[in-house]
Design brief:
single chain, alpha+beta, four-stranded mixed beta sheet, 3 helices, 4 strands, 30% strand, CCD81, CCDC81_HU_dom_2, CCD81 protein
Length: 105
């Protein structure tokens, strides 16, 4: 199931068929879709076609992130919002940005 991070975007997987020899194999390809507010604010292209149908995304559960990181919920939420703000600032200045998330996908 995909996850939506408010003001940043959503992460999910989509099925993709690949040819392996004479056999067709379906894999789950990780995808990221930038939040509409960031795309509009920075005049970026919005690719809405990546999710098949009306696939439901769940909002990020800050309490679960906080528990996994062993920090208070408010700190986890603040860090995520700060990262989103920094990303937006960098995009606004036309900088290339790489957001690396370990162990995702």
């Amino acid at each position: 199931q995909g996850v939506r991070i408010p003001t940043l975007g959503s992460f999910d997987t989509i099925p993709e068929c690949i040819q392996v020899g004479a056999e067709t194999v379906t894999i789950q390809k990780p995808v990221f879709h930038l939040a509409r507010n960031l795309a509009i604010a920075h005049n970026l292209m919005d690719n809405k076609a990546y999710l098949p149908g009306n696939k439901e995304l769940v909002p990020l559960k800050y309490s679960e992130v906080a528990r996994a990181a062993a920090v208070p919920r408010q700190k986890a939420e603040g860090c995520i919002q700060g990262t989103t703000s920094l990303l937006s600032h960098c995009l606004g200045k036309g900088q290339n940005v790489a957001l690396v998330l370990k162990e995702v996908g």
